[in-house]
Amino acid sequence: MASTDNTVESVESVVGVLFSKNRQECPEPIKAEVQGYIPNWLKGTLLRNGPGIHTIGEMSYNHWFDGLSLLHSFTFKNGEVFYRSKFLRSDTYNSNTEAQRIVVSEFGTMAYPDPCKNIFAKAFTYLSHVVPEFTDNCLINIIKFGDDYYASSETNFIRKIDPQTLDTIEKVDYMKYVTVNLATSHPHYDSAGNTINMGTSIGDKGKTKYMLFKVPPIAADNKKSPLKNAEVLCSISAHHLLSPSYYHSFGMTENYIIFIEQPLRLEIVKLATAYFRGVNWGSCISFNKDDKTWFHIIDKRTKKPVTEKFYSDSLVVYHHINAYEEDGHIVFDIVAYKDNSLYEMFYMANIRKNLKPETAMTSTPTYKRYVIPLQCAKKAEVGVNLVKLPETTATAVKVKEGEIYCQPEIKCEGIELPRINYAYNGKKYRYVYASHVEWRPIPTKIVKFDIVTKEMLEWTDDMCWPAEPLFVPHPDAKEEDDGVILSSIVSSDPKKSPFLLILDAKTFKEIGRASISADIHLDLHGIFIPHNN
To answer: Residue 282 domain-assigned?
Structure first.
């Protein structure tokens, strides 16, 4: 287990290693030193994204999620591992490094013009948009459209990259294809190769909508970007037109999309005026604990939401785990919080406090299962639980005609960054792989949770901080957990090199680690790209 020494020195060491240290890129591949072994069948590239620069010149970002994107990759071939990393050459990166100061705003850090520059030109830029132009510092995830890969965040900009060299290729604006000002970094991929994602369209006169859109695997002429053929599948008007819900992900089954409209909301007027009020965009997100959480169920076949209105108590969710259909019900699993304190914890001013037990997390991530009955009989009496699945304690109670109140089954607590065997996405499944947190917001373990038995296997090592675990299936897999777990590990022990961890997904035993003599950072999300030869 990671060190729990809470002296000022140990806290400062952890903060420096994990959060405030600027990394150096490693643009040419270097060979890792392998302990144990790497399965010969494991062939491909693990591509990851996360913040790598936190200070530019004499200025520092206020929030960890604001740091400039650093891409890194681990390539597996013939039992060997090769590592490389490169900063995303976004417009944001180029402008900031050229100026040697922060000149592009991020959600937690508002940039102001150089006093020597014309402030009125900057002011005009902000006044000319309902929503100001956002950063293209795409530091959250790697997403796939057809055969192309993109670094992404949650704005309307994504950056195409070369997954082998990590070179930055081009800047893409979603707005040229679908009218979304914001989009998630967690799309879904269906069996036909389509990429399905959601975004928020913030229009004039309060016409704020949530847009579900699909991108086919190839463009019609095979030469242009698949985004040229993006199709809006469904749009849903926001409950609060000037304060739409913030959301980070959504759920998908074979026939349905699950979108959670939560009471964590973007205040559009505040967002548009933040620059002039001298506050950051993050302060324009508000949590309304007395509001309902609405579950929108969209039928992919009709491209319309189901007519019944499903809701629950207030909650905050960043990550969906999985969803599936069973006997006329939709089962969907999420990691939920009771408030939005998680985002606040990662302000740099707060991180040091949150690494001490006396300032422990106030909202524990909780694995919740909700069940939505698709057949809501009109003859059912008010107060009747409409869930008929025997294996769950989740309920969906009829409040009045067409309105159903849902309460979850609690599966476990303390897990975040959940991943599954994606071959089971949208299907009934058994295993979740996740980071595990205790009293602090930074994971010290990665775990495998068995939904059926409630058994939890874990991996941990002293003074080691694991990134999100990612499952890679064995090419001849016969069971759901036939494969390996990969996680990039950063250590706050100066005697330990960072390394890539390889676990047997079935037993959760370590089978190998690939130590890297490079400046590895704590990343956020990523993707595994299999190689066929």
So the answer is: yes
Tell me if 149 sits within 8 A of 143, measured CB to CB.
yes
Question: Which pLDDT score, from 0 to 100, does residue 250 have?
Answer: 98
- pLDDT level of residue 355 (50, 70, 90 thresholds): low
- DSSP states of 488-527: EEEES-TTS--EEEEEETTT--EEEEEE-SS------EEE
Helix (H) or strand (E) holding 15: helix 8-15
Contacts of 220 (CB under 8 A, 6+ apart): 228, 229
CA dihedral 244, 414, 74, 216 (to 10 degrees): -40
| Packed helices 268-277 and 119-127: angle between N→C axes, nearest 10 degrees | 170
CA gap 140, 15 in Å, rounded: 20
Q: Which helix (H) or strand (E) holds 265?
A: strand 264-266
For residue range 162-188, list pLDDT tens digits in order.
999 999 999 999 999 999 999 999 999
Of 472, 276, 308, 485, which is closest to residue 397 (Cα–Cα)? 308
Distance CA 99, CA 199 (A): 32
Q: Domain for residue 291, yes or no?
A: yes
For residue 55, the enclosing domain spans 8-530
Q: Cβ–Cβ contacts within 10 Å for residue 78, how many?
A: 8
Per-residue buried b or exposed e for 87-100, using 16+ beta carbons within 10 Å of the residue's own CB: bbbbebbebbbebe
Q: What is the pLDDT of residue 10?
A: 62
Q: In this structure, is residue 1 part of a structural domain?
A: no
Measuring CA to CA, how many Å separate 366 from each of 212, 233, 350, 431?
A: 27, 31, 22, 16
Query: Whole-structure pTM over 0.90, yes or no?
Result: yes
Residue 457: is its pLDDT beyond 80? Answer: yes
- Tell me how many domains the chain contains: 1
**48-63 burial code (b ≥16 CB/10 A, e <16):** bbbbbbbebeeebbbb
Question: Buried (b) or exposed (e) across 486-501, using 16+ Cβ within 10 A?
Answer: bbbbbbbeeeebbbbb
**Using CA atoms, how far apart are residues 146 and 216, in angstroms rounded to an integer?**
7
Structure tokens at 480: 């759901």
Task: Report yes or no on 2 lying in a domain.
Answer: no
pLDDT classification of 5: cutoffs 50, 70, 90 = very low
